[in-house]
Amino acid sequence: MKKFVLVIAGLGLLTNSLLPQQSPVLTFETHALKAGINNNMTLCRYADPGSGGENVVWDFSSLQSTNDFTGKLTPHTRSKASEAFSTANTILNEFNTLFYLSVSPYKIEQTGYSTLDNSVMVTYNKPFVKMMFPFAMGDSYSGELYGSMKTGSFEFPLTGNYDVTADGYGKLILPGDITVENTLRVKTVKSYEIEATGSKQKTEVTVFRWYNSCNRYPLLVLAAIQTSYGSRTNCKYQAAYNNVISLQPTEADSELLPSVRVFPNPAVDYLTLEYTLTAPGDAVIDVYSINGSKMITLLNKQMDAGLYRITISPEKEGLTPGHYVIKASLQKTVITEEIIISK
After folding, report:
1. Do the beta carbons of residue 293 and residue 268 sit within 8 Å?
2. Nearest Cα residue to 336 out of 266, 275, 270, 271
Protein backbone atom coordinates (compact mmCIF):
# COMPACT_ATOMS: atom_id res chain seq x y z
CA MET A 1 0.00 0.00 0.00
CA LYS A 2 1.58 3.22 -1.18
CA LYS A 3 0.51 6.65 0.11
CA PHE A 4 1.26 10.16 -1.03
CA VAL A 5 0.15 13.22 0.94
CA LEU A 6 0.17 16.80 -0.33
CA VAL A 7 -0.62 19.56 2.17
CA ILE A 8 -1.76 22.87 0.67
CA ALA A 9 -1.98 26.24 2.38
CA GLY A 10 -3.90 29.14 0.88
CA LEU A 11 -6.52 29.44 -1.86
CA GLY A 12 -6.51 29.47 -5.62
CA LEU A 13 -5.15 25.98 -6.27
CA LEU A 14 -6.84 24.67 -9.42
CA THR A 15 -4.76 21.53 -10.03
CA ASN A 16 -2.18 19.43 -8.19
CA SER A 17 0.55 21.82 -9.34
CA LEU A 18 1.82 23.90 -6.48
CA LEU A 19 1.78 27.67 -6.80
CA PRO A 20 5.03 29.52 -7.53
CA GLN A 21 7.20 30.26 -4.52
CA GLN A 22 10.46 32.04 -3.97
CA SER A 23 13.64 30.14 -4.76
CA PRO A 24 14.23 27.73 -1.86
CA VAL A 25 16.86 28.68 0.68
CA LEU A 26 17.74 25.89 3.10
CA THR A 27 18.05 27.20 6.66
CA PHE A 28 18.58 25.68 10.08
CA GLU A 29 15.08 26.71 11.17
CA THR A 30 13.29 25.14 8.19
CA HIS A 31 15.49 22.30 6.92
CA ALA A 32 17.77 20.98 9.66
CA LEU A 33 17.31 17.38 10.74
CA LYS A 34 15.28 17.58 13.93
CA ALA A 35 14.97 14.94 16.64
CA GLY A 36 11.35 13.97 17.12
CA ILE A 37 10.28 14.76 13.54
CA ASN A 38 10.55 11.57 11.52
CA ASN A 39 11.01 11.31 7.76
CA ASN A 40 8.31 9.21 6.08
CA MET A 41 9.23 8.16 2.56
CA THR A 42 8.36 5.65 -0.14
CA LEU A 43 11.17 3.49 -1.48
CA CYS A 44 11.31 3.25 -5.26
CA ARG A 45 13.42 2.12 -8.18
CA TYR A 46 16.45 4.26 -8.98
CA ALA A 47 16.19 6.58 -12.00
CA ASP A 48 18.58 8.82 -13.91
CA PRO A 49 18.78 12.08 -11.89
CA GLY A 50 18.97 14.19 -15.06
CA SER A 51 20.91 17.39 -15.50
CA GLY A 52 21.30 20.44 -13.30
CA GLY A 53 20.85 24.11 -14.18
CA GLU A 54 18.07 26.67 -13.96
CA ASN A 55 14.40 26.14 -14.78
CA VAL A 56 14.86 22.40 -15.22
CA VAL A 57 11.88 20.05 -15.38
CA TRP A 58 12.62 16.77 -13.58
CA ASP A 59 9.90 14.28 -14.48
CA PHE A 60 9.88 11.31 -12.09
CA SER A 61 6.16 10.61 -12.42
CA SER A 62 6.84 7.02 -13.49
CA LEU A 63 8.99 6.03 -10.51
CA GLN A 64 8.12 2.50 -9.43
CA SER A 65 7.46 2.35 -5.68
CA THR A 66 8.52 -0.75 -3.75
CA ASN A 67 7.83 -0.13 -0.06
CA ASP A 68 7.39 2.52 2.63
CA PHE A 69 9.96 3.35 5.28
CA THR A 70 10.50 5.86 8.07
CA GLY A 71 13.76 7.54 8.95
CA LYS A 72 13.59 8.00 12.73
CA LEU A 73 15.39 10.93 14.38
CA THR A 74 16.09 10.85 18.09
CA PRO A 75 18.31 12.79 20.50
CA HIS A 76 21.70 11.17 21.10
CA THR A 77 21.77 9.92 24.67
CA ARG A 78 25.26 9.00 25.75
CA SER A 79 25.92 5.29 26.25
CA LYS A 80 28.92 3.01 26.28
CA ALA A 81 27.93 1.63 22.86
CA SER A 82 27.92 5.10 21.30
CA GLU A 83 30.72 6.79 23.26
CA ALA A 84 32.78 6.90 20.04
CA PHE A 85 30.28 9.49 18.77
CA SER A 86 30.37 11.77 21.80
CA THR A 87 30.10 15.00 19.76
CA ALA A 88 26.80 13.95 18.12
CA ASN A 89 23.50 15.34 19.38
CA THR A 90 21.12 13.57 16.95
CA ILE A 91 20.77 10.01 15.64
CA LEU A 92 19.15 9.13 12.31
CA ASN A 93 18.02 5.51 12.14
CA GLU A 94 17.36 4.31 8.59
CA PHE A 95 18.23 1.29 6.43
CA ASN A 96 19.28 -0.60 9.61
CA THR A 97 22.05 1.94 10.16
CA LEU A 98 22.55 4.53 12.90
CA PHE A 99 23.94 7.84 11.57
CA TYR A 100 25.41 10.06 14.28
CA LEU A 101 25.00 13.76 13.59
CA SER A 102 26.01 17.04 15.15
CA VAL A 103 23.27 19.54 14.22
CA SER A 104 23.96 23.24 14.81
CA PRO A 105 22.51 26.52 13.45
CA TYR A 106 25.33 26.69 10.90
CA LYS A 107 25.82 23.13 9.68
CA ILE A 108 25.08 19.43 10.02
CA GLU A 109 28.12 17.22 10.54
CA GLN A 110 28.11 13.45 10.32
CA THR A 111 30.49 12.19 12.97
CA GLY A 112 30.10 8.55 11.98
CA TYR A 113 27.70 5.65 11.63
CA SER A 114 27.25 2.07 12.78
CA THR A 115 25.15 -1.01 12.25
CA LEU A 116 22.36 -1.50 14.79
CA ASP A 117 24.44 -4.06 16.70
CA ASN A 118 27.65 -1.99 16.43
CA SER A 119 29.39 -4.87 14.64
CA VAL A 120 30.62 -2.30 12.10
CA MET A 121 31.46 1.25 13.16
CA VAL A 122 32.81 4.16 11.14
CA THR A 123 34.04 7.13 13.13
CA TYR A 124 35.19 10.42 11.62
CA ASN A 125 37.91 12.27 13.49
CA LYS A 126 37.37 14.99 10.89
CA PRO A 127 33.61 14.84 10.17
CA PHE A 128 31.76 14.89 6.89
CA VAL A 129 29.79 18.16 6.61
CA LYS A 130 26.39 17.01 5.37
CA MET A 131 24.87 20.50 5.02
CA MET A 132 25.70 24.14 5.71
CA PHE A 133 23.18 26.89 6.44
CA PRO A 134 21.96 28.93 4.69
CA PHE A 135 22.26 27.10 1.37
CA ALA A 136 20.78 28.18 -1.98
CA MET A 137 21.13 27.78 -5.74
CA GLY A 138 24.76 28.07 -6.82
CA ASP A 139 26.19 27.58 -3.34
CA SER A 140 28.85 24.91 -2.84
CA TYR A 141 31.50 23.73 -0.42
CA SER A 142 34.00 20.90 -0.18
CA GLY A 143 36.25 19.33 2.40
CA GLU A 144 38.25 16.37 3.59
CA LEU A 145 37.29 13.66 6.04
CA TYR A 146 39.26 11.00 7.85
CA GLY A 147 38.72 8.45 10.56
CA SER A 148 38.51 4.68 10.83
CA MET A 149 36.30 1.68 10.23
CA LYS A 150 36.09 -0.94 12.96
CA THR A 151 34.71 -4.40 12.35
CA GLY A 152 35.08 -6.98 15.08
CA SER A 153 38.58 -6.67 16.52
CA PHE A 154 39.99 -5.08 13.34
CA GLU A 155 40.30 -1.36 12.71
CA PHE A 156 41.27 0.22 9.39
CA PRO A 157 42.12 3.83 8.52
CA LEU A 158 39.72 5.78 6.31
CA THR A 159 40.40 8.96 4.30
CA GLY A 160 38.32 10.85 1.78
CA ASN A 161 36.79 14.07 0.52
CA TYR A 162 33.41 15.47 -0.42
CA ASP A 163 31.77 18.14 -2.57
CA VAL A 164 28.28 19.55 -1.99
CA THR A 165 26.63 21.80 -4.59
CA ALA A 166 23.16 23.27 -5.10
CA ASP A 167 23.32 22.52 -8.82
CA GLY A 168 19.74 22.81 -10.05
CA TYR A 169 16.49 24.69 -9.73
CA GLY A 170 13.11 24.02 -11.32
CA LYS A 171 10.02 21.84 -11.38
CA LEU A 172 9.82 18.35 -9.84
CA ILE A 173 7.14 15.88 -10.95
CA LEU A 174 6.51 12.89 -8.68
CA PRO A 175 4.19 9.86 -8.81
CA GLY A 176 0.54 10.54 -8.07
CA ASP A 177 0.25 13.48 -10.49
CA ILE A 178 2.11 15.71 -8.04
CA THR A 179 4.01 18.70 -9.49
CA VAL A 180 6.15 20.85 -7.23
CA GLU A 181 7.37 24.17 -8.58
CA ASN A 182 10.52 25.90 -7.38
CA THR A 183 12.52 22.97 -6.08
CA LEU A 184 16.22 23.08 -5.29
CA ARG A 185 18.48 20.14 -6.15
CA VAL A 186 21.54 19.48 -4.00
CA LYS A 187 24.25 17.14 -5.29
CA THR A 188 26.66 15.47 -2.86
CA VAL A 189 29.68 13.44 -3.95
CA LYS A 190 31.59 11.68 -1.17
CA SER A 191 34.67 9.56 -1.95
CA TYR A 192 36.76 7.63 0.55
CA GLU A 193 39.33 4.86 0.79
CA ILE A 194 39.75 2.17 3.41
CA GLU A 195 43.16 0.51 3.62
CA ALA A 196 43.11 -3.07 4.86
CA THR A 197 45.83 -5.75 4.74
CA GLY A 198 47.85 -3.84 2.18
CA SER A 199 45.04 -3.19 -0.30
CA LYS A 200 42.57 -0.33 -0.71
CA GLN A 201 38.83 -0.34 -1.02
CA LYS A 202 37.53 2.77 -2.79
CA THR A 203 33.94 3.97 -2.48
CA GLU A 204 32.19 6.87 -4.19
CA VAL A 205 28.69 7.89 -3.09
CA THR A 206 26.73 10.31 -5.29
CA VAL A 207 23.46 11.58 -3.85
CA PHE A 208 20.91 13.95 -5.37
CA ARG A 209 18.28 15.52 -3.09
CA TRP A 210 15.40 17.79 -4.07
CA TYR A 211 13.96 20.33 -1.61
CA ASN A 212 11.22 22.94 -1.56
CA SER A 213 10.71 25.85 0.81
CA CYS A 214 8.17 24.32 3.17
CA ASN A 215 9.25 20.72 3.64
CA ARG A 216 11.92 20.07 6.23
CA TYR A 217 13.17 16.91 4.52
CA PRO A 218 13.93 16.14 0.86
CA LEU A 219 11.11 15.50 -1.59
CA LEU A 220 13.20 12.97 -3.51
CA VAL A 221 16.54 11.22 -2.90
CA LEU A 222 18.54 9.31 -5.51
CA ALA A 223 21.80 7.67 -4.40
CA ALA A 224 24.39 5.67 -6.35
CA ILE A 225 27.15 3.83 -4.46
CA GLN A 226 30.14 2.48 -6.35
CA THR A 227 32.75 0.37 -4.53
CA SER A 228 36.01 -0.82 -6.09
CA TYR A 229 38.27 -3.45 -4.59
CA GLY A 230 41.21 -4.41 -6.79
CA SER A 231 39.81 -5.15 -10.25
CA ARG A 232 36.27 -5.66 -8.96
CA THR A 233 33.59 -2.96 -8.96
CA ASN A 234 30.18 -3.16 -7.33
CA CYS A 235 27.33 -0.67 -7.79
CA LYS A 236 24.31 -0.26 -5.52
CA TYR A 237 21.42 2.17 -5.71
CA GLN A 238 18.94 3.65 -3.25
CA ALA A 239 15.96 5.85 -4.05
CA ALA A 240 12.96 7.24 -2.16
CA TYR A 241 10.43 10.05 -2.47
CA ASN A 242 8.67 11.88 0.32
CA ASN A 243 5.02 10.96 0.80
CA VAL A 244 4.20 14.15 2.71
CA ILE A 245 4.58 17.33 0.64
CA SER A 246 3.51 20.56 2.26
CA LEU A 247 3.09 24.24 1.43
CA GLN A 248 2.50 25.12 5.06
CA PRO A 249 5.38 26.58 7.07
CA THR A 250 7.75 23.87 8.23
CA GLU A 251 6.90 24.50 11.86
CA ALA A 252 3.45 22.99 11.07
CA ASP A 253 5.01 19.53 10.78
CA SER A 254 3.33 18.37 13.97
CA GLU A 255 -0.21 19.50 13.03
CA LEU A 256 -2.89 16.85 12.62
CA LEU A 257 -3.55 16.01 8.98
CA PRO A 258 -6.47 14.30 7.26
CA SER A 259 -5.93 10.62 6.59
CA VAL A 260 -7.14 7.86 4.28
CA ARG A 261 -7.05 4.09 4.80
CA VAL A 262 -8.08 1.55 2.16
CA PHE A 263 -8.81 -2.11 2.94
CA PRO A 264 -8.65 -4.89 2.01
CA ASN A 265 -5.85 -4.25 -0.46
CA PRO A 266 -5.77 -6.19 -2.76
CA ALA A 267 -9.59 -6.21 -2.93
CA VAL A 268 -11.94 -8.72 -4.61
CA ASP A 269 -15.65 -8.36 -3.77
CA TYR A 270 -15.60 -5.11 -1.83
CA LEU A 271 -13.34 -2.19 -0.98
CA THR A 272 -13.66 0.10 2.05
CA LEU A 273 -12.25 3.61 2.18
CA GLU A 274 -11.91 5.04 5.68
CA TYR A 275 -11.10 8.74 5.77
CA THR A 276 -10.72 11.32 8.53
CA LEU A 277 -11.20 15.08 8.42
CA THR A 278 -9.69 17.03 11.33
CA ALA A 279 -11.79 20.13 10.53
CA PRO A 280 -14.78 20.97 8.32
CA GLY A 281 -13.87 21.20 4.64
CA ASP A 282 -14.33 19.99 1.10
CA ALA A 283 -13.94 16.26 0.47
CA VAL A 284 -13.42 14.82 -3.02
CA ILE A 285 -12.48 11.18 -3.63
CA ASP A 286 -11.79 9.93 -7.18
CA VAL A 287 -10.48 6.68 -8.61
CA TYR A 288 -7.94 6.82 -11.45
CA SER A 289 -6.47 4.20 -13.72
CA ILE A 290 -2.75 3.58 -13.33
CA ASN A 291 -2.34 5.65 -16.53
CA GLY A 292 -3.98 8.70 -14.97
CA SER A 293 -7.50 8.51 -16.48
CA LYS A 294 -10.34 9.29 -14.06
CA MET A 295 -12.61 6.27 -13.67
CA ILE A 296 -15.21 7.29 -11.06
CA THR A 297 -15.92 9.94 -8.43
CA LEU A 298 -16.89 8.41 -5.08
CA LEU A 299 -17.43 11.62 -3.10
CA ASN A 300 -17.66 15.36 -3.75
CA LYS A 301 -19.21 17.38 -0.92
CA GLN A 302 -18.61 19.59 2.10
CA MET A 303 -18.02 17.48 5.24
CA ASP A 304 -17.77 18.10 8.97
CA ALA A 305 -14.77 16.90 10.96
CA GLY A 306 -14.96 13.20 11.74
CA LEU A 307 -14.25 9.62 10.70
CA TYR A 308 -16.14 8.32 7.64
CA ARG A 309 -16.29 5.15 5.57
CA ILE A 310 -17.30 4.32 2.00
CA THR A 311 -17.70 0.70 0.89
CA ILE A 312 -17.95 -0.11 -2.82
CA SER A 313 -18.19 -3.14 -5.08
CA PRO A 314 -15.41 -2.92 -7.68
CA GLU A 315 -17.50 -4.94 -10.11
CA LYS A 316 -20.55 -2.66 -9.82
CA GLU A 317 -18.34 0.40 -10.23
CA GLY A 318 -16.83 -1.03 -13.40
CA LEU A 319 -13.36 -1.55 -11.95
CA THR A 320 -11.87 -4.59 -13.66
CA PRO A 321 -8.92 -6.45 -12.10
CA GLY A 322 -5.76 -4.35 -12.13
CA HIS A 323 -3.97 -1.46 -10.45
CA TYR A 324 -5.70 1.85 -9.63
CA VAL A 325 -4.98 5.04 -7.71
CA ILE A 326 -7.43 6.54 -5.23
CA LYS A 327 -7.01 10.31 -4.99
CA ALA A 328 -8.59 12.01 -1.96
CA SER A 329 -8.67 15.81 -1.65
CA LEU A 330 -9.49 16.58 1.99
CA GLN A 331 -9.16 20.02 3.63
CA LYS A 332 -6.74 21.24 0.93
CA THR A 333 -4.71 18.06 1.41
CA VAL A 334 -4.24 15.61 -1.47
CA ILE A 335 -3.65 11.95 -0.58
CA THR A 336 -3.08 9.22 -3.17
CA GLU A 337 -3.28 5.54 -2.43
CA GLU A 338 -2.43 2.73 -4.86
CA ILE A 339 -4.90 -0.18 -4.80
CA ILE A 340 -5.14 -3.56 -6.51
CA ILE A 341 -8.40 -5.15 -7.66
CA SER A 342 -8.00 -8.94 -7.89
CA LYS A 343 -10.13 -11.61 -9.53
Report:
1. no
2. 275
User: Which tens digits make up the pLDDT trace of 188-204?
Assistant: 999 999 987 778 899 99
Asked if residues 333 and 278 have their Cβ atoms less than 8 Å apart, the reply is: no
d(CA 281, CA 16): 17
In angstroms, the CA 275 to CA 277 distance is 7
Q: Find, among 66, 71, 32, the residue nearest to 47 by Cα.
A: 66
Q: Which of 117, 118, 107, 108 is nearest to 84 (CA)?
A: 118
Contact 201, 177 (CB under 8 A): no
Q: How many residues does the chain have?
A: 343
Q: What is the pLDDT of residues 227-261, one digit of tens each?
A: 998 889 999 999 999 877 765 555 544 445 677 88
Which listed CATH number (2.60.40.2550, 3.40.640.10, 2.30.30.40, 1.10.3300.10) goes with 256-341?
Answer: 2.60.40.2550
